[in-house]
Queue: 2 jobs
Job 1
Amino acid sequence: MRIFVEGPWWCGEWTAISVATLEQLGHEVALHYHNRRTLTDRIALAAGRLSRPAESRSTAWTRRYQLQLFQAMGDAAWDMLFSIQGRAQADTIHRLRSVSPGLRVVYWWGDIITDQGSRRLADAAEFSDRILVSCRGAYDKLSAVHGDKITYFPFGVSPRFHQAGEISWRDRQRYTAEVAFVGTCYPERCELVRYLNARLEKPVRVWGRGWRHCRGVRAHGPLPLADALKVYACSGISLNLHHRGTDNGCNMKFYEIPAAGGFQICDWQPVMEETALGNQTIACRSPAEFADKIAHYLACPGERQRIGEQASAMVYAHETYLARFGKLMGSFTP
């Protein structure tokens, strides 16, 4: 197939991984990032605010992006638009289908579903052939409304992107920790890290955005995926804390930490009970349980290593993007 992928440019390389996997399956793929604004875009948006002062920045960018998407796709025939939390609108898809009459649209929403996300999904349902969601709870709710159009599509791993690779002495100096956390600061995460720091001999080493607002926690800045994988590989325990809005799903780190050879302790999600990897993962339901499990596994490095090695083998055997995308693409008739 000829597949056009639009998605976010982001340090987790979500879009790049999707493109690489589709190419590995033998498809011809073109890529456009929907959140990278050029200098020309910024000038045009600034001028637009003068002529349309009541229009929000988000609305202005969405309107401009419709034209960019059509220009990028409208000069050739495509078999599929694979949209990762994209901003395409129904009228743009209608125009694209006039150029590519057989165009199928697959829309992937992997994030938590906020009010804005609900509106985006409702809009996407108007023109999409398939909507992918990465939380089981979202799948249950949306499939009751949209039926077979909704597919549960969890995250996974790619051997090309998720192996930690060679780790230098400098990397070990920079990224080694007894307990580490990589991720954006949210109030519930701040509260848990402070709780653990009061009970651990060494505080949790933290990397991510927004931690300057968490009083009492010293943190480093955000990391690109390659460096985050080194943290997982070098640390005794990597915490994996889902966003409080997660609706029974597993985030990317759930797969990335074992893929890098790390050992994770995670907050519990019911969907974990459905997979071998989930049943292999140490999951907690309260701050006190986190503190107890961390103390136990810091004191038992052999047990920690055994579980980590089993999880790493399991994630590459059963949770790959290649298998997930292969099954998805095979569900479309030629």
Job 2
Amino acid sequence: MSAPLDIDQLHTFVAIVDTGSFTKAADRVFKTQSAVSMQMRRLEERVGKQLFTKDGRGNRLTAEGEKLLNYARRIIRLNNEAIAAFDDNRLEGTIRIGTPDDYADRYMPEIIGRFAKTHPNVELYIVCEPSVSLGEKMARGELDIALVTHNPRQRVSDVVRTEPLCWVASANYPLKDDAPVPLAVGRRDCPWRQLASSALDADGREYQVLFTSWSSTVIAAAVLAGMAVSVLPESALRPGMKVLSAADGFPPLPPVQIGLMKRPGLSTSLMTAITDHISACLDNISPAALPDDLDGDVKSFARGQRGRASHAVTGW
């Protein structure tokens, strides 16, 4: 009878494929690089085929490696399901989560990925709406958890992340110095819009609102197309955007805080599991890299805002 495939070797094999290198895979599976290489040699001996081939300084899957990858993922998934089926402490049920679309785009992939792996029997029902709407849904008991822009004047939430709020424009389309600042912002009751308007008014700089939307995707598109300036949290910065500073005629803005709202009465075990995952994921997400062409004062300002938990402003 043929010896079965080693599940630990398959985990390492999949980690190499997912991370793109033996070195990164070693960190993921908590092994040394030499141990990872040894596991792959033994796996190749077991299947009798070469799984990787050299590609410059890296490695790529052979045709036989591609064939094994499909089986490896299925074996690992079935193994996890079998273990979960006999876990008397496994969590089950549904968690209704609300988040603005900009937070969903930046944070939810990590949160969902980690939570689904550790709690495969819990269904995540996710709603993307502005923080104001999410606060109202929480009050009506329509959501269990909401990741919102912290605003103690409107709703109660626990601060889980603080980061700079920045003026942004396209890095590829310079602004006209003699024209009013074209703005892409939220609707009239959006506090970030109100903050931007107030700051420009106080600075005596003319502006014109050209784009209004609750959608961060629409706002980002207007900015990247060189058609408008907006205000975004640092984690929402995208390649092709430029942070505007006092040197460009834009005053510094207070930092933004992200808060977590929780529905009273939610199962303690479910509440603890999801909130722990959210907090851990937000702690592990690195702030967006600031463009290299910014001067030192601007970078110092943005980095100096991180971790400050006072005078935050609310957004979408």
